[in-house]
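Tokens help. Our protein:
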Amino acid sequence: MFTRDEITQIEAHGLSVAQVERQIENFKEGFPSLPIVRAAAGGDGVRVFTPEQIAEAEARYDSRRKELRTIKFVPASGAATRMFKELFEYVNDDKRTPGIDRLITNLEKFAFFAELAKYLKPQIDDKDVVRNIIINGLGYGSKPKGLVTFHAYKEGARKPVEEHLVEAALYASNGERASIHFTVSPEHREGFLKLLEERQSYYEQKYDIKYDVSFSEQSPATDTIAVNLDNAPFRTDDGKLLFRPAGHGALITNLDKLEADIIFVKNIDNVTTDERKPDTVTFKKVLAGELLRLQERAFELLRAFERGEECTAEAKRFLCEELCCKLPDDASRELVIESLDRPIRVCGMVKNEGEPGGGPFWVRDDKQREQLQIAESSQIAKEDMHLMKEATHFNPVDLVCGVMRYDGTKYDLTKYTDPKTGFISQKSAGGRDLRAQELPGLWNGAMANWNTLFVEVPISTFSPVKVVQDLLRPEHQ
């Protein structure tokens, strides 16, 4: 199937021929749908805490913060293409929409207006205004979201990178240091470094802490081959194989390189202003406090097993009642230990207030365990789509992860993925159609075999910016 030169190209990419052949088989066979049992809901997979439980979990985390190694993990790769798609269509195709009207009418309400104003000449037309947002001037169309100005303050505007520095100081520090890790694209790394060089010391003085900021890039070895519509390898005009990034599910290898007691995961664009941060801070601590409680009990049971004590029934009960992992009645001692000895994540879930999207579900795995997973619509069979419509909560990507084992070693996170998950989409390159293969998100297939808990969090903790007009919403003003 491959020439000697192509084999060299595959190996230079960090892949093996066997891996690429498996990817091609995935195109031919497709990915199986998730065996959904039902949507998780309040009292059935989604925990709804009382005010007393909220206070208790928050206090548990705060009481241990000084001794814990914590880090904030922020996926921040890629340009803000989708955020400015409507603006590009206006400039390139003269497609003026109500969204463009809203942008122009409210231009001075955007936090980036002060920067934009330097490029606006008298009698400039609307298209030139938009062009100076995305191409000339600010050039936001080729920048990542993390470097777009989101919020205005009296002391100066902030970009999402800065808001994550603030959050890290408020809930992910030990009182002296705060660690934060951004995944970035190679072409954007310099921009992140430049912003931190200019602004990091300001936030260190403001919050009286020091930051440890690190970066990583998505490994080319996680890319997937593209194929033609007949599933034969896609070759570019110069005869090369085409590889594409496999989506942010591939970032599990980046996460796996971090060693900490608590890892907070949150998307780069899900930030809000200081005035609205208290709920975010509280519930991040609540999720961490719940993780510590569950982890402590799991560790006690695993140590008891290691001492040779008989606690299978007790562990099975804990898995079912506390870790939402329902084992078959005839589960062996080995399956109980295996189910207990896994990474743990506690995920915030927000009540649906519109059309249901990706969210929390009970899923049955090949060992007949019923456990919780975050599922996207692309992972659900047509005959099960009614279950998605029944979902009461959706996934805001609000995770707190425990990746350390009871003996102080770290789990190999790459061993807890579900290689059978993924989806196929149709794309194009050089004007030719192709099929691309992506992994479900970092919090979907990449964490499918973790112990997973869902906790209801308020909608105020969820304020993403998907399109530029979202910056006009109250949580960004």
